[in-house]
Amino acid sequence: MSRAVALAALIALATLLAACSTTPKPEEGEPAAKATTPASRYPISRDGAPLVAISPDDVSDAVPRPDPLLAVGNKSPYTVNGETYSILKDYRGYREQGTASWYGAKFDGHETSNGEIYDLYQASAAHKTLPIPCFAKVTNLDNGKSMIVRVNDRGPFHSERIIDLSYAAAVKLGYMSAGTARVEVEVVNVIGVDDLRDTTAGNYRFLQLGAFGSEETAQRLYEQVQAMLNQTVIISKVQSGEDLLYRVRVGPLAGHQEMLAVQRSLEESGFPGGLPLP
């Protein structure tokens, strides 16, 4: 294929993608653009709906779980477009009403503010001041529909908007075509969340060996690992949605070198090396 023909094909494809977007123009309520990232990062210049549409029945709520709050994605204060924002330290009980927008195909497959990969078909959201990750119940005040989303990104950086939902969440709440909706956002309080935002990156203090629904399974692993290590092994209970989990952890550890030594000992004895946590 000649370069001229290839270029023409690319232009035709770009035109088709733009034509397939059903999203209104910006002044009519288009999904909020992510002002934190240069446009050149994305292969699509204009945001909109994906080529493969879904129905509300295809969208599942996010399942709340006690993910730790780390420094990544939670820098505070931070500045975007000359406006400075501070991440809420005490976010439990947060509730606010305002305008929701949504974002979609342009950002699909790219990193969110805490390094997770944005999937427009999942129930997620961007918020300016809630710590990430956390979970929130979002209710469309115009139709009464509600769902749980995982907040793992920053935005929308429009003064009149309080949350930017994924394409899937906007479909579920019934405002994808309109572009925006009046909503109430309420944080879901999850028991057992470790707030480690002030911990220096890389300063790991614990190794989590597993989280089990069975206390007997956790106790068995605890006894096996404690018998072979000099370090402290603990079992901590944590609520995850409607389930009670038992986490088995080694620590606190003195630093990175001790963590590596413990991981080596575990692996040599046939155990997994564990997940490092600050």
Write the layout of secondary structure elements.
Layout: H1 3-20, E1 78-80, E2 83-85, E3 95-103, E4 124-126, E5 134-140, E6 146-153, E7 161-166, H2 167-173, E8 181-187, E9 206-212, H3 215-228, E10 233-240, E11 243-250, H4 256-268, E12 275-277
Parallel strand pairs: 3-7, 4-6
Antiparallel strand pairs: 1-2, 3-8, 4-7, 5-6, 5-8, 9-11, 9-12, 10-11
Description of the structure:
This protein has 2 domains: 31-187, Barwin-like endoglucanases; 206-277, 2-Layer Sandwich (Alpha-Beta Plaits). Helix content is 19%, strand content 26%. The chain contains 4 helices and 12 strands. Mean pLDDT is 82; it is low at 1-30 and 35-40.
Features:
278 residues, 4-stranded antiparallel sheet, alpha+beta, Barwin-like endoglucanases, Alpha-Beta Plaits, disordered N terminus
**CATH domain topology of the largest domain:** Barwin-like endoglucanases
CATH architecture of the largest domain: Beta Barrel
- Beta-sheet strand percentage? 25-35%
| The CATH homology group name of the largest domain | RlpA-like domain
Structural category is alpha+beta
Largest sheet: 6 strands, mixed, barrel
The stretches of 5 or more residues where confidence is low (pLDDT under 50) are 1-30, 35-40
- Counting structural domains, the number is 2
> What is the CATH first-level class name of the largest domain?
Mainly Beta
Q: Can you give the mean pLDDT?
A: 82
What characteristic shape results from the CA principal axes?
elongated
The helix/strand order is: HEEEEEEEHEEHEEHE
Strand order of the largest sheet: 3-7-4-6-5-8
Indicate the percent of residues in helices. 10-25%
Number of helices: 4
Rg over CA atoms, rounded to whole Å, is: 22 Å
Distance between the termini: 53 Å
Number of strands: 12
